[in-house]
Amino acid sequence: MTSPSTTLSLVDTDPAELPVDALVIGVHSQSGSADTGGEGPGGYAGTLLLATGAESIAAAFDGRLTETLALLGATGAPGEVIKLATLGTVTAPLVVAVGLGAEPTGAAPAPEILRRAAGSAIRALAGADRVALSLPVPDDEDAPAALRAVAEGALIGGYRFTGYKTRPQPTRRTPVVEVSVHVPDAADATARAEIARATVVAAAVARTRDWVNTAPNELRPPSFADSVVAAANAAGLTVEVLDEKALADGGYGGIVAVGQGSDAPPRLVKLSYQPPAGTAGAGKRIALVGKGITFDTGGVSIKPAQGMWEMKSDMAGAAAVAATMLAIAELKPAVSVQAYLPMAENMPSASSYRPGDVVTMFDGKRVEVLNTDAEGRMILADAIARACADGCDYLLETSTLTGGQVVALGKRVAGVMGTPELCTRVRTAGDAVGEPAWPMPLPEDVRKGMDSDVADISQVNAGMDRAGHMLQGGVFLREFVTDGVDWAHIDIAGPSYHSGEPTGYWTKGGTAVPVRTLLHLVEDIAANN
């Protein structure tokens, strides 16, 4: 399944003359001005400020555009969308004002504000063929970041999962077909490069969301592996797939144990990217690891029925890593990258692994199983150990690992644990792309609580104490990282799946967090080591 594609282009002609179905402009709020008793009806004049890019539109409305928008209820709040029929004042029949919040001081709005604004506007205009965005894109050093944000927001905001409905849906409108972004110079090479990059990134985001949103009966480990392999081969990546026999022969005890309860056997998919000869980022090697539990019942330690349907998203980490590799193949960063995708279905059956089992992992460590619902760390540990055995300098792993992440940080902010310096880089990258992450500690008392009487480590606290539950996952995974490897575990249990109303560039379902963070990190390491 793929989403209808939205094309993106640049324009530099007067926005008021663009032959489009809708023209999007930005509007800022002005705090404290709503009660000033301005000249417009009801004292609204002066409560709104048009953003850069709307000048010719304001002139066409004889200076009464903000007054009219205010009468329609506009406040300039971030993401707010107000539609106004132009009645021939400009070429486009519809002007759409999207809120950008308070006017920034001496700079363009923050990239994430622009990204969400563009996404909100494009979502609201579903059904239109051609839309132009005339949002603030400055002609200075802030231009690339602003343009990237607008372009990404427009493309990601246009995503729609095709779904499984068999009848036409009268209220379901198709995504915008063509989006034009107004810039000072449409021929500028840097601007054109940003549009090209945004198209690649948005495609990776859409691919991730499609995988996550697919029904779990259609995306079991073998079929998930086949889908990833087909996409990777088409992208020119090197592919290795281990089936259940190869996993057993290779000593991948964690993946085998989790997968043995399902009649859809487990897989481990490795994807490899090598940069062009002579450009390999000072020889640095990056390993990406993503959790691929295609459905998680909890196994013998079965989950409550309420909300279990969302466990189809327990493979969001593997989906994000696989799609990141597809983007890497197109963007061609100057650094070697290998991805490891352990895939299994955690089901209860006569052959399921059990609490009390002792499992021998890929690196020889023995793990006492206390909770079969802590299955993600079992498959990830094998993949991490394999990545370290193959050799890497940086290891970035992402997974929907613990409900503790949601309890601690909510549904928008990922938890990140690992080498302090790399965790800081993850947070910086997340802030830059609008995928926030917060570094968390790995206390020694948490590790002590995971001491086992019969094995090297328990997979959870030996007394089943859930205190620091998110940290227990990170502490466990640390055991399988080779000394000297900079690593980070990114827990995306909350941010990877949006179950609420559409907002910004997110619709209900998979979000593709942290694809853009991983791409930012890979490019940063390629450029700076």
What's the total helix number? 15
| Overall number of strands | 21
Which stretches of 5+ consecutive residues score pLDDT under 50?
33-46
State mean pLDDT (0 to 100 scale): 94
Q: Quote the beta fraction.
A: 15-25%
CA-to-CA gap between the ends? 37 Å
Helices and strands: which structural class?
A: alpha/beta
Shape: elongated
Question: What can you see in these coordinates?
Answer:
The chain is of the alpha/beta class. It is built from 15 helices and 21 strands. Strands 8, 9, 10, 11, 12, 15, 16, 17 and 19 form a 9-stranded mixed beta sheet that branches. Strands 1, 2, 3, 4, 5, 6 and 7 form a 7-stranded mixed beta sheet that branches. α9 links the parallel β11 and β12 (336-346). The protein starts with 6 loop residues before the first strand and ends with a helix.
Structural features:
elongated; 33% helix; alpha/beta; nine-stranded mixed sheet; 529 residues; 21 strands; seven-stranded mixed sheet
How would you summarize this macromolecular structure in one to three sentences?
This protein is an alpha/beta fold and 529 residues long. The protein has 15 helices and 21 strands. The protein has helices at residues 55-60, 65-71, 111-124, 143-157, 189-213, 221-235, 244-250, 253-259, 316-331, 376-390, 403-409, 420-433, 444-448, 469-478, 515-528; strands spanning 7-11, 22-29, 48-50, 81-85, 94-102, 130-134, 178-182, 238-242, 267-273, 285-290, 292-296, 336-346, 358-360, 366-368, 394-399, 414-418, 437-439, 457-458, 486-491, 497-498, 509-510.
